[in-house]
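Filed under: proteins

Residues; backbone shape codes:
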Amino acid sequence: MATSASPPRRRPTTARPLLGLRRRPGRIALAVFRLPLNAYAHDAGWLMGHTFLRFTHVGRRTGQPYDTVAMVLHIDRAAKEAVICAGWGADTDWVRNLRAGPAVNVRVGRASFRPEHRFLSDEEALDVVTQFRREHPYRVRLFETVLGWGNLRDDDVVRDFVRTHPFVGFRPAPAASPDVR
């Protein structure tokens, strides 16, 4: 006697997609992007030089500290400012947290400091991207291909990109002056 078994029912999954790089990071992307964060967590961030920085920000709703690692796109040595970009746009949690309050700490390589931050204007961000694509053409091609950001070698595409992706500059906050009475 043959019985007909119904196929097993699939439960809807809320897990992240495997790659999901173009709109939101998927599981593999998150694992790869967490490598620098893990290096910093194990006091080995200095091995990456000044390619990545780690910053600690406070959740706008929870008040809890969160660590985030981002690729440094530009370092202005005179101003002691490191510039990063929100690769997934303005709705990224860390961007919203920085709009609500300051970062607590920044670590670049072996240097660590209490930062002040600023959001760059579109023109400043355009200058950063223009210089970055001149200095790092292979990274730009990687971003275009893997992250689906379009042809970042095209000025019009870059202008659209900087309008939708906030650029943030971190620099050491001025030392608090002692309270003299």
